[in-house]
């Protein structure tokens, strides 16, 4: 949106729910810092490590709430107070739910862009789109010549899932339509041999970089393929009881988090109110969990499916 504000003559922003905004704090490194990083790579790694652990501290605020969450919210509200001087506009941009319940916007220019004279904030959802205008829920018509429409929020409604058919003759989308998207460690799905997912159910993060999750999953998949090769197996499939137990534990861990109980509706949860998107705790927990391929939870079959190899 800030880029649109800089290039368009007029921008109308339709807002159903105000977001929490925190500063990006993404400054350019000085020439002196760059020279230091070149001469001493350990210094750069130290900075990156500090950034990682500062993000790992956020789940304490998002999971446990209490004082840490209030401090997190207060920091965001101070940013809003500083960047939006108009009290009426600021009131429209003040969230009424716990921080983290929806995706937090990390930006230094989103709020300032909303204060510019060529930007109008409409604190009302879109009710109708006409040939040359957009009508909001209050019935006001706004003439426009282009629409920037945010999509992609049904994150587990994967187009590919309609084309993946499992061992029982049902597609992955049909299976997930029954009880929500589920996988073992967000990577393998019961009934779908040799299917490996990256960023599958409950592997997205609300506080840090998903690159960590992807790298951990790749290591897990490679270990699974190694187990297949050593056993001379042609197929590998997670056992349904193992998958069910894993997901029951996940959902229990998510119950009291801000993502489930923060007082908002978000794309983290499916139409049944089940959080099928987010990992419920620190990334370090997931990384440790994925270090070893848990072969006991899998069936390894020969290429001709005539036996189960090396599984209890």
Automatic annotation (TrEMBL):
Top-level taxon in the UniProt lineage: Bacteria
InterPro entries reported in the protein's UniProt record: FAD-bind_Monooxygenase_sf, FAD/NAD-bd_sf
PANTHER family noted in UniProt: FAD_NAD(P)-BINDING DOMAIN-CONTAINING PROTEIN-RELATED (PTHR42877:SF4), L-ORNITHINE N(5)-MONOOXYGENASE-RELATED (PTHR42877)
Protein name: 4-hydroxyacetophenone monooxygenase
Lineage of producing organism: Bacteria, Bacillati, Actinomycetota, Actinomycetes, Geodermatophilales
């Amino acid at each position: 949106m800030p880029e649109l504000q800089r290039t368009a003559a007029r921008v109308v922003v339709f807002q159903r729910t105000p977001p929490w905004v925190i500063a990006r704090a993404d400054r350019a490194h000085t020439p002196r810092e760059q020279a230091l990083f070149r001469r001493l790579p350990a210094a750069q790694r130290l900075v990156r490590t500090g950034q990682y652990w500062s993000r790992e501290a956020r789940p304490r605020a998002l999971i446990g709430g209490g004082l840490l969450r209030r401090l997190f919210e207060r920091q965001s509200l101070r940013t809003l107070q500083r960047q939006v001087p108009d009290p009426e506009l600021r009131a429209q941009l003040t969230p009424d739910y716990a921080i983290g319940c929806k995706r937090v916007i990390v930006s230094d220019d989103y709020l300032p862009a909303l204060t510019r004279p060529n930007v109008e904030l409409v604190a009302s959802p879109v009710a109708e789109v006409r040939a040359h205008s957009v009508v909001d829920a209050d019935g006001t018509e706004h003439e426009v010549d282009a629409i920037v429409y945010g999509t992609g929020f049904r994150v587990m409604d994967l187009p590919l899932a309609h084309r993946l058919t499992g061992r029982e003759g049902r597609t992955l989308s049909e299976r997930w339509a029954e009880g929500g998207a589920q996988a073992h460690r967000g990577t393998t799905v019961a009934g779908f041999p040799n299917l490996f997912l990256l960023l599958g159910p409950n592997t997205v993060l609300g506080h840090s970089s998903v690159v960590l999750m992807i790298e951990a999953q790749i290591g897990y998949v490679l270990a699974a393929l190694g187990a297949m090769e050593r056993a001379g197996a042609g197929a590998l499939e997670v056992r349904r009881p193992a998958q069910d137990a894993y997901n029951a534990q996940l959902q229990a861990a998510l119950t009291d988090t801000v993502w489930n109980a923060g007082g908002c509706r978000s794309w983290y949860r499916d139409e049944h109110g089940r959080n099928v998107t987010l990992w419920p705790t620190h990334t370090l927990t997931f990384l440790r969990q994925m270090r070893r391929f848990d072969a006991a939870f899998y069936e390894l079959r020969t290429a001709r499916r005539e036996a189960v190899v090396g599984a209890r």
